[in-house]
Design a protein that fits this description.
The chain is α+β, with helices and mostly antiparallel strands. It is 50% helix and 13% strand. α1 packs across α2.
């Protein structure tokens, strides 16, 4: 399992960091762990699946 930071996810999805944090808060993108500062870390496979689903539904 490869973990991605909020910034890495935001870059991958082409959105702002606050959007990724909101997705996590609303349980649309689940974090797998927390870093030393308490920021969420996401599984790369989950992020890729989310992007694919979002694109099918009309975009991010």
């Amino acid at each position: 399992m490869s973990l991605m930071t909020v910034t890495e996810v935001a870059d991958f999805l082409s959105v702002q960091d606050v959007r990724v944090q909101r997705l996590e808060r609303e349980s649309l993108l689940l974090s797998k762990d927390k870093d030393a500062q308490g920021n969420p870390l996401f599984d790369k496979n989950d992020v890729e699946k989310y992007k694919e689903l979002a694109e099918r539904l009309g975009g991010l």
